[in-house]
Write a structure and sequence with these properties.
Shape: elongated
Structural class: mainly alpha
Order of helices and strands: HHHHHHHHHHH
Distance between the termini: 82 Å
Largest sheet: none
Number of strands: 0
Strand content: under 5%
């Protein structure tokens, strides 16, 4: 009686999940943005700042927002979650808190984000004007896809639309939040910062995904239509056939 063949432990991890990386589903748009926890983490320092400022004053609000950002970073370390969003979020909160401290006003907490939105909008618009739309540049850089999309006008036009959509989102953030800032609506500023953050960013990414899929489909179709280069064997066979059919010179 023969023993059953052992399982290939290299491809079957513990727990019985024998799916390879290629078989696992691609992360959804929400998962790429950090999941539901990422949405919650980004809102916590803002909510803490507004609530603590209302009951205990500006100084306590500044330290409360920074403390909450530190706590979120530590929590991500403990849970072994990606640190990049937490670190960038911490520095963003630290800069916002510093501006609030320097201005002596709670609404100063939102000033950095307001002007950052205008700067992002300007960069996106300029990238379209110089025919290097950021949506396409960043995507090709992250995926090593090269710059073939720039030679195809429909592909570049799609990335222009995606970049323009992101520019509109940042422009809307600046206009709305600047108006709230000038009107001293600190509470509504916090609401606008959260509501016009990840939700609008998700809408912009949907346009980027549309542009990427549209471009990839076009480039694959163009590549399929291009004649394949001859191999060395094919070149040699063609030359032999050519010279074999050539008339011999008369003697």
């Amino acid at each position: 009686m023969t023993e059953p063949a052992p399982r290939d432990e290299k491809h079957v991890p513990e727990g019985g999940d024998d799916r390879t990386d290629a078989d696992k589903p691609e992360p959804t748009l929400l998962e790429q943005m950090g999941g539901v926890s990422g949405l919650f983490y980004s809102a916590v320092p803002v909510i803490v700042f507004v609530l603590v400022n209302a009951f205990f004053g500006l100084t306590a609000a500044i330290w409360g927002s920074i403390g909450s950002a530190v706590a979120i970073t530590v929590l991500r370390v403990v849970r072994k979650e990606p640190l990049q969003p937490a670190i960038s979020g911490f520095f963003g909160v630290a800069i916002a808190a510093f501006i609030a401290f320097r201005t002596g006003s709670a609404k100063g907490f939102f000033l950095f984000g307001i002007w950052a939105s205008l700067a992002y909008c300007a960069v996106f618009v300029i990238s379209i004007l110089v025919r290097w739309p950021i949506a396409g540049v960043v995507w090709s850089a992250l995926n090593g896809a090269g710059q073939a999309w720039r030679k195809d006008k429909p592909s570049r036009y799609g990335y222009d639309i995606a970049t323009a959509a992101l520019a509109v989102i940042f422009a809307a953030r600046f206009v709305v939040q600047r108006w709230l800032y000038d009107s001293d609506y600190t509470g509504w500023l916090a609401f606008a910062k959260i509501a016009m953050g990840y939700p609008l960013y998700a809408l912009g990414l949907l346009v980027v995904v549309w542009a990427v899929r549209r471009s990839d489909k076009r480039l694959k179709a163009l590549a399929a239509d291009e004649p394949k280069p001859e191999t060395d064997e094919e070149v040699e066979a063609r030359l032999r056939e050519k010279y074999a059919q050539a008339p011999t010179p008369e003697t």
